[in-house]
Amino acid sequence: MFGYQIPRDYDEAMELDRKNGNTKWKEAIDLELKQIDDYQTFKDLGKAEINTKGQVMNAQIGYKKIRVHLVFAVKHDGRHKARLVADGHLTRNTTEGAYSGVVSLRSLRIVIFLSELNALKLWGADIGNAYLEAFTEEKIFIVAGPEFGDRKGHILIISKALYGLRTSGARWHDRLFDVMKDMGFSPSKNDPDIWMRPSSDGEVYEYIAVYVDDLAIVAKDPAEICQTLKDKFKFKLKGDGPLEYHLGCGYWRDPDGTLVADPKKYIEKMMEWYEKEFGEKPRKMKTPLEPGDHPEIDESPECSEKDQSRYLTMIGQLQWLVALGRFDIFCATMTMSKFRPAPREGHISRLKRMYGYVSETRAAAIRFRTTEPNYDNIEAPQHNWMRTVYGNVKEVMPEDAPEPKGKTVVTTSYVDANLYHDVVTGKAVTAVLHLLNQTPIDWYSKKQSTVETATFGSEFSAARTATDQIVDLRNTLRYLGVPVQERSYLFGDNKSVVTNATIPTSVLSKRHHALSYHRVREAVASGFLLFHWIDGKKNHADILSKHWTFVSVFPMLKSLLLWRGETKDIKDEPTVMDKDKAN
Q1: pTM for the whole structure
Q2: 183-196 confidence digits (pLDDT tens)
Q3: Could you say which of 216, 436, 461, 463 is the most buried, measured as most Cβ atoms within 10 Å of its Cβ?
Q4: 148 neighbors 439 (Cβ within 8 angstroms)
């Protein structure tokens, strides 16, 4: 990890210290145990009396013995970390809820977008030993091992929500819930791990996005929020300040001040792993997969057991990279994920190619551009839907959404389908890209659940999926207190589908398209969705629907992931990778 060997247990950590001629792992262990003791996590009952059967004779009645172990890691800045984790699987399943959620990365991007839109400050903070802020309700104890020093062999009752216990996540969630409520925050009904409250002047909302113990704070005075967490609630915050690194992404600004979410450090970690596993750097590639590739018909030999394990790791890394913003590899990653149970040699060769593409395009990043797009040249059709089955239909508005505050947001979506993407199953792929103003905020690439025999059917099915997602996105914004423009824009490159969806007199030709047909048409009739045709060369969803050529998508990739500054300044010529602009 980041070029360091990671020990598997306490003994190996001590051995690595001896080999390396330092005490970094010992210091990490001592720091972890000191912090745990600072939280009064254990109650020491003295030396354990153990009989010949290994039973602890002087344990308290009703308490169950479990084990703990150490987990080691190295942070991106080289810090050595040790975490004491309980073997919670040794305890009984609880009848109470043990679930504790985390903020979705889409919600996190939305909150960061709102910080830029409404000129709020964006801070990050890590709550040290967060679970230990809460008490556990489980009756358990351990017999201390050698890492506990003088307490080796002692009975230690666990009183705090130690990492690894079944209910620790829920107990920490309960504790944080009480703290947030005390500070005037309430959970969003769309994503309960986004906490929000009106700003002191009432002009906008402030937000805290929670991912276990990592906080992304969007507020007029985030320093005041952090100070309250420290002073009033005694939380031990680490790294509190302007957000620079969060959940695998670095955050920085272009020369013009545009905020950038950049997964370069995560990509570097991926490439270090690759070089260690394969003994070489990946070959440079301009596309994730060969254009028109069909890995489902690959008949090469099955991978060795070692390569099967590598395949799972590579797919996991690529999937997380997609979640961090690299939607340009989404279609390829989705396609290759299918072969995880039994990959072939040709499949892992394709993943190596994808690593070569990612290595070559490390500069790609999400930029939070908040200027509203100019759609003055798009005329909204003036059709009368009253004499159709939809009548005077209106968009269904949530009645319990908070009062909108701040600047208005325009949602733009691109949709595409790739017929016969999988030649074995005959299934097409649905691809959707969503933007808030000019910021990519969510993306989707998935094989359709039914087999379509013509492009029309697959495109209408994709349009239905896009419509459902637009409705969800609009309501997500409303539940975050965001003013949403009256109309959302959906762009597709199939004229027949756009015509059938937007003309009241169009006729349904095939009944098995009825659900998609009526879902999209009702949204258009209600007035909140404008479905407009564009040339396929300008359809950004093409990036997510097929295995493309570099020349065909580079103009779109350039504006979405590579360009610094105003996108209106981009020239149309897709020549070579403009690294001077991208780096």
Answers
A1: 0.89
A2: 999 999 999 999 99
A3: 463
A4: no
